[in-house]
Specification:
By secondary structure, this protein is α+β, with helices and mostly antiparallel strands. It has 2 domains: about 220 residues, Rossmann fold; about 130 residues, OB fold (Dihydrolipoamide Acetyltransferase, E2P) (Beta Barrel). It contains 9 helices and 20 strands. The chain is elongated and about 80 Å long. It starts with a strand and ends with a strand.
């Protein structure tokens, strides 16, 4: 099968011996929106630069539509790059900025003007086409950068944190426009970001990186609900992680012995089979945890409903932000657990600060993964 982009065991080692990227494998279908996500220094921007040709790879192969591009110069690759600072020419009009890439390629004037007019209309830049970028807003400059990248009709558009300079409200609006534009044009996007919300909202698949290595490649929902590794469990979302040892595994449900009792969740099949006594982590998303009053005779009934996943805790924090209630529960060992749900579910006053509560979750909503 021929992919729009394929990275095969790609590695990058600098002259000083530092490894930036190691054993990177990825196959991207035409029209996919792929996000590279990870902490600063994880190698996501370096990988983007390797694809663009701004950095040379040390090992492996990179293919675009079946053609090996390892030794092809950046300007001859069927890619276009949009940087965080947009890199627009301040002395040029919007139209001239957009047409710059076509001018470099030597496209005839009539064809060039038609392409520029079409992309300017697509991105709604007609009214400012003759103005200079320095006089425009951040959102307008971002659209200009997109137009300049797309007008050359690349097979792959590379975006290096292109929304990082925008304020929160504008960033959200541009996210929506970017996703719609990508689906309309059918261009493959490779998007670098350190913002989880962006990656989860925009991409078809997310590549989570850590210290130059790929930790997991999954759809946003799969990544959020079924982490494969301890790093992903800690990095993505707001998870509570219980460490322990595997006691049993049957019908995809694993039970592990922890410091707060026997707990269960769905075994992550991508981790392979489990071994009794092996160290494991139980990962419980904040949204999966239910809160119950700590007093009363319903304890046994609750434990039965949630297959024994029941923990004693004390409510030590309660805040409402917009329509979301944020609760903090402290366990007997002093650990704090963050919980959240719609305010209709946990209204202020339902549980008093300092009161005893019970925490529960269904095994199907938690994930058990190997500890290492």
């Amino acid at each position: 099968m021929i992919y729009d982009l394929e990275l095969i065991n790609v590695g990058k080692v600098y002259d000083n011996g530092a490894t930036a990227v190691s054993n990177f494998d990825l196959a991207v279908n035409k029209g996919e929106f792929i996000a590279f996500l990870g902490p600063s220094g994880c190698g996501k921007t370096t990988t983007l630069r390797l694809i663009a040709g701004f950095e040379s790879i040390t090992s492996g192969d990179m293919m675009i539509k079946g053609v090996r591009i390892n030794d092809i110069r950046p300007e001859r690759r069927p890619t276009s790059t949009i940087f965080q600072n947009y890199a627009l020419f301040p002395h040029m009009s919007v139209r001239c900025n957009v047409s710059y890439g076509l001018d470099v390629k030597g496209i005839a004037k009539a064809e060039r003007d038609a392409k520029v007019d079409r992309i300017i209309a697509t991105l709604g830049l007609e009214d400012i086409a003759d103005r200079k970028p320095e006089k425009l807003s951040g959102g307008q400059r971002q659209r200009i950068a997109l137009a300049r990248g797309l007008v050359v009709e690349p097979d792959i558009l590379l975006l290096d944190e292109p929304l990082g300079a925008l304020d929160a409200n504008l960033r959200k609006a541009i996210q929506n426009e970017l996703k719609l534009l990508q689906k309309t044009l059918g261009v493959t996007f490779i998007f670098v970001t350190h913002a989880q919300s962006e990656a989860l909202a925009l991409s078809d698949r997310i590549v989570v990186m850590n210290q130059g290595r790929v930790e997991q490649i999954s759809s946003p929902h799969q990544l959020y609900t079924r982490p494969n590794t301890p790093f992903v469990a800690q990095f993505i979302g707001r998870n509570t992680i219980f460490s322990g040892a595997v006691e049993t595994q049957a019908n995809d449900v694993a039970r592990i012995s922890t410091s707060v009792g026997m707990l269960s969740g769905q075994w992550n099949s991508k981790a392979g089979g489990s071994v009794r006594g092996a160290k494991a982590n139980l990962v419980v998303p904040a949204e999966a945890i239910e809160v119950h009053a700590g007093e009363g005779a319903a304890r046994q009934e609750i434990a039965g409903e949630y297959d024994g996943n029941l923990i004693d805790a004390k409510l030590t924090g309660f805040d409402v932000v917009g329509h979301v209630s944020h609760l903090t529960a402290t366990l007997a060992d002093g650990r704090q657990v963050s919980l959240e749900a719609h305010v209709d579910k946990y209204r202020p006053g339902r549980f008093a600060i300092g009161s005893d509560i019970l925490l529960s979750w269904r095994p199907s909503e938690a994930t058990v993964i190997p500890a290492v």
